[in-house]
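The following block was generated as part of the benchmark described in Methods. Ligand: GDP-alpha-D-glucose.
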Amino acid sequence: MTEAGLVVVANRLPVDADADGGWRRSPGGLVTALEPVMQRAGGAWVGWPGTPDAEVEPFDFDGTRLIPVALSAEDVELYYEGFSNDTIWPLYHDVIAAPRYRRPWWEAYLRVNQRFADAAAEAAAEGATVWVQDYQLQLVPAMLRAARPDLTIGYFHHIPFPAYGLYSQLPWRRQVIEGLLGADVIGFQRVADAGNFARAVRRLFHYETKASGIRVPQPDGSVRLALAKAFPISIDAEAYIELAGREDILARSREIRASLGDPAHVLLGVDRLDYTKGIGHRLKAFGELLAEGRLSVQDATLVQVASPSRERVETYAHLRDEIELTVGRINGDVDTVGHTAIRYLHQAFPREEMVALYLAADVMLVTALRDGMNLVAKEYVASRTDNHGVLVLSEFAGAHDELGRALTVNPHDIEGLKDTIMRAIEMPPAEQRRRMRALRRRVREHDVEAWSRDFLDALAATRGESR
Ligand code: GDG
């Protein structure tokens, strides 16, 4: 039995199985950010090991106790691909794709959330802090509080929280809010997300919501405070700066430009292949600029990395077809034997290659239709140590609240997007420098470590007051 002072609960464990039966640390900001905190606190991490039907015993990894939660193939289909990624994901991203409401998916979500809550309850020491991550586990905070009233419970929501007009579609809208309100601190990416959540609480429960917290009445007549607040997530900026200074990565970035035929302008998009990312809008704008002769295929290349994602969910399979059709059409119309307009890569790359791509790109296109934060925008900025390059950033990405010196776009406005792409391409170096300096300052000062510290400090501050 584990008795940890800090327990993180997330859909996935922070490791991936490797080919020879061992584990390696998964890439990603959350894992990096929490590693030192976990080591100091003697932490435990509860999560799914990533393979269906695998019964894995708890084990120690890099100073953290890892506690696997087993998911059957059916759990993965109903709880993960179904309710998490085909109900909550589209609903919370402004119904860009239509959410599907299926009762068996909800039942699986309940069942699996209970399993995560049980595992966390067992792992946590008396009076411990538990930090629940993301939309797959929205019911865990209340389940955990019911089992372990002694715990301090935090929850961080990595994706947007929608306006009530949309949220209210959810047949289980009351249960989900009740689940989240089990936490002492409910963290969101943007102030607007925290506001949407507080409004949903008022509409559905008529609880009082104040800056100090939401007043949640308890069965014994007392009131508990739950703080709903923005804690914008960030990246390990120093790690990107270090990679960006590596001679081999710099050489690779030059090689990338050369292999594209040394065009005057390299544009870049990096996304999981997801309908929230606005990849189609970006391709359309770029394709029209070429068709209209405002850009030529000799001078400008768009590299689009679309890393494979959720391929067993039907909407994603359709999206892939649609994007690949669009790329094929545009390239077919404008390519020459020697030059291609869009270099499309449906692949995942090591982080070193991502940084080489960031360094090779004059213009980074982040045109999300809705995005909790968008870490790619921050990674691009951190990597641009020479202060050159232009970030084009959608106002619908959470990053927009902090990265005000980017060029802002509404990706639905294709003419506006085209003009902004041209402005980015034509921006004088002095203006690029001014803007990039300000962007970089923000990302360096507010890195992922500052994010986790802010959240855990806020959580510690609620101790005592909230019970
Ligand atoms: C969710 C929210 C929020 C992508 N392709 C490759 C690769 N990546 C890395 C990027 C970046 C990460 O994956 C993607 O993070 P984003 O923030 O851009 O987007 P989501 O995956 O949708 O993340 C989002 C985030 O959670 C954190 O709270 O910002 O809004 O939707 O780090 O670099 N990394 C490598 N190869 C790839 O091919 N190595």
